[in-house]
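Structural prep section.
Before we set up the soaks we want a predicted structure of the protein with guanosine-5'-monophosphate in place, mainly to decide which crystallisation condition to try first. Input record follows.
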Amino acid sequence: MKEIRILDKKFREMISQDAIQERISQLAQQINNDFRGKEVLFVGILNGAFMFAADMFKRIDLKASISFIKLASYHGTNSTGEIKELIGWNEEITGKNVIILEDIVDTGMTLEGTVHEIVLRKAALVRVASLLLKPDAFTGSIPIDYLGFEIPNNFVVGYGLDYNGYGRNLTSIYSLVR
Ligand code: 5GP
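Run finished without errors. Recording the tokens verbatim:
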């Protein structure tokens, strides 16, 4: 398995580029089927979800638009547990079908906050797509409607996810070697 170094840490390839792309194609097909004939607003969560959002959105065959919001709350390799305010929200979503695009759901706190904000703004329907989920860390109650992969409770980088700002450009997902 391929190993890489980012700053002071070593990471090992866990999910290949091909596996990621194939899974996103499957999820996009599900969304295309579930929302056939309807309009959808995709909301990507920055920074981590930009790559997932781009690859997903390219495969959407619906009347669709996309917007991005930022909700930074993560530093280094440990979740701080706090949710910061929403940045960059200028979308009118009343009555819209919204699909949130998340890179990774860890405790679920970020997702909980985001869904809450979107429900408050009176979306008709809110669904969640996440590339990754750490079931052992998850304490939330919001279901992930479109999930790419369940992964162990270990820090990962690549495909949009960073370690102290680096590694987002990797096309596969890598897990921290302890
Ligand atoms: P949660 O609120 O679910 O605990 O955390 C979600 C956010 O924490 C994600 O959007 C992501 O930014 C960050 N995060 C959680 N786990 C990881 C990880 O393994 N690697 C990276 N790079 N970020 C993570």
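Observations: Residues 69 and 88 are 5 Å apart (CA to CA).
Flagged for discussion at group meeting.
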